[in-house]
Design a protein that fits this description.
Belongs to the FGGY kinase family. Keywords: ATP-binding, Disulfide bond, Kinase, Nucleotide-binding, Rhamnose metabolism, Transferase. InterPro entries: ATPase_NBD, FGGY_C, FGGY_N, Rhamnulokinase. It is a single chain. Helices cover 40% and strands 21% of the residues. The chain is α/β, with parallel strands linked by helices. Helix 10 crosses helix 17. 50% of the residues are buried. It binds beta-L-fructofuranose. The site of beta-L-fructofuranose has 14 residues, from helix 10.
């Protein structure tokens, strides 16, 4: 048996998965899982990259010991937007910044004075969100961070892993599109934007396309993990790109919306080329780069972060509660007690989530959720409504109606959210795999090794290998009535 390994780093946890492909089916099993939290120091937020690299090595070692056959390849994917600087010897110069750092807001305000929103969107096709890499780098440069004097390259997270695993330096395309520094037409770093922000073009390395075979592990790493023949492949290294690759599209779903539902919910449609026009600008949509020339026209919705942060607070205060308990509590709570805009930037930073939701409601003279079940239920209902606003915006841009919503990622384990999404959108929800990202990662390795030849073969394999669950819409009128209340509350109204 031949094995392939996926290292999937999310913004709240990471995992190493092993994929076993027998020619017709693929099986995926979890080898190692570990938490990944932002680290706050002097009011700056960072990622603990050395710890993540350590966990990766642990996972590789465990995989090596547990495999029955040979482990051939490894692919890395991570959350988008963040990266780190390396020096001339390839060393990590400084802890990578976390996109939730409030400093990004200063960067956002600064860049908007230098480049107009429209200019930036027309060049990059990426939504204007303060979390984007461009704002992080622009403010560091403006504030004369010393790191620019020593850096050889700025590498996005997966590229950073690649460099420490193989010594190869490059910028994988799908993750590079999340920076908002890539020109959408040229699929390369936009020199005008870089110049306007005084960012040196030489810091940004050559674009590598997903499916590229990077090479063997550095001898020192191979020795550490005891896998001398492991080959690293640049997959679709942006986790969302990998997740959407493994959406189990059925033949009759000609027009579908996907939700890659993890810490963030990425809500969008797969299209053949970027759509950069008045509407996508007004709706603040992104055209993120995918595999096989596809583009994900999408919006970021705050997602399970709201639940994760609420839970973290409860757990830290001594309560023993898991996500399943939370869903059970929400099920018991009254429907439509209140609602809020999950995408209000006030929910971006970690901490005090329950209080922030309560004060959002209080400020608008809405009923304030008090009980735990009420808080959770209003988070889930508000998310479902928000998914519906994106559906309507996508339908408006694309000029056609969607006939299915595919949910993949951790959110598929939240049956209430899946059901609410069907109710709010009025169309069936098809829930795929909770490990869609890792699966997409492995599928790209199989493609690179010549085992699969194109996107349709990949999607067929997903369909054959993993079960789906279908949620039909219920109580549509009641949901529609409450949706009207919801859109009157959110700041970006839709027509
Ligand atoms: C999903 C994701 C999103 C990106 C957000 C922050 O995990 O990668 O695509 O916008 O995280 O990086």
């Amino acid at each position: 048996m031949i094995h392939h390994l996926a290292a999937d780093f999310g913004a709240s946890s990471g995992r190493i998965l092993r994929g076993d492909f027998d020619g017709t089916n693929i099986r995926v099993s979890e080898i190692h899982r570990f938490p990944n939290y932002p680290v706050r120091m002097r009011n700056r937020l960072y990622w603990d990259f050395p710890r993540l690299f350590y966990e990766l090595q642990c996972g590789l070692r465990i995989a090596g010991n547990s495999a029955v056959g040979s482990i051939q390849t490894l692919g890395i994917d991570t959350w988008g937007l963040d990266g780190g600087f390396i020096g001339s010897a390839g060393e990590l110069l400084v802890a990578p910044r976390n996109y939730r750092d409030p400093i990004n807001k200063d960067g956002f305000d600064y860049v908007r004075k230098v480049l107009s929103d429209e200019y930036l969107f027309r060049k990059t096709g990426i939504q204007l969100l303060q979390i984007n890499t461009i704002y992080q780098l622009a403010i560091m440069k403006k504030e004369h961070s010393y790191v620019f004097d020593f850096a050889q390259a700025f590498l996005m997270m997966p590229d950073l892993f690649h460099s420490f695993l193989t010594g190869i330096i490059g910028s994988e395309y799908t993750i590079a599109t999340t920076t908002q520094l890539l020109n959408a037409d040229q699929q390369n770093w936009d020199v005008d934007i870089l110049k306007a922000l005084h960012l040196n073009r030489d810091l940004f390395t050559d674009i590598i396309h997903p499916g590229t075979r990077l090479g063997k592990l550095l001898p020192s790493v191979a020795k550490e993990v005891n896998l001398p023949d492991l080959e690293v492949i640049a997959v679709a290294t942006h986790d969302t790109a990998s997740a959407v690759l493994s959406v189990p599209v059925l033949e009759n779903s000609s027009a579908f919306m996907f939700i890659s539902c993890g810490t963030w919910s990425l809500v969008g449609a797969e299209i053949p080329q970027p759509i950069i026009n008045e509407k996508t600008l007004a709706y603040n949509m992104s055209n993120e780069g995918g595999v096989f020339g596809t583009i994900r026209l999408l919006k970021n919705v705050m997602g399970l972060w709201l639940l994760q942060e609420t839970r973290r607070e409860w757990v830290e205060s001594g309560l023993d509660i898991n996500f399943k308990d939370m869903v059970d509590m929400a099920e018991q709570a009254s429907p439509f007690l209140t609602m809020f805009d999950p995408d209000d930037p006030c929910f971006l930073e970690p901490g005090h989530m329950m209080k922030r939701i309560q004060s959002w409601c209080l400020q608008r003279k809405l009923p304030v959720p008090q009980e735990k079940g009420e808080i959770i239920r209003c988070i889930l209902e508000s998310l479902a409504f928000k998914f519906c606003t994106v559906l309507k915006q996508l339908e408006d841009v694309l000029g056609n109606k969607m006939n299915a919503v595919y949910i993949v990622g951790g959110g598929v384990n939240n049956s209430l959210l899946c059901q609410f999404t069907a109710n709010a959108t009025g169309i069936p929800v098809i829930a795929g795999s909770s490990e869609a990202t890792g699966i997409g990662n492995i599928l790209m390795q199989l493609y690179a090794k010549g085992e699969l030849k194109d996107l349709s073969e990949i999607r067929l394999l997903v369909q054959q290998s993993f079960p789906i669950q279908v949620y039909e819409p219920q109580n549509i009128e009641l949901w529609e009535e409450n949706y009207q209340k919801f859109i009157s509350l959110i700041s970006e109204r839709i027509s």
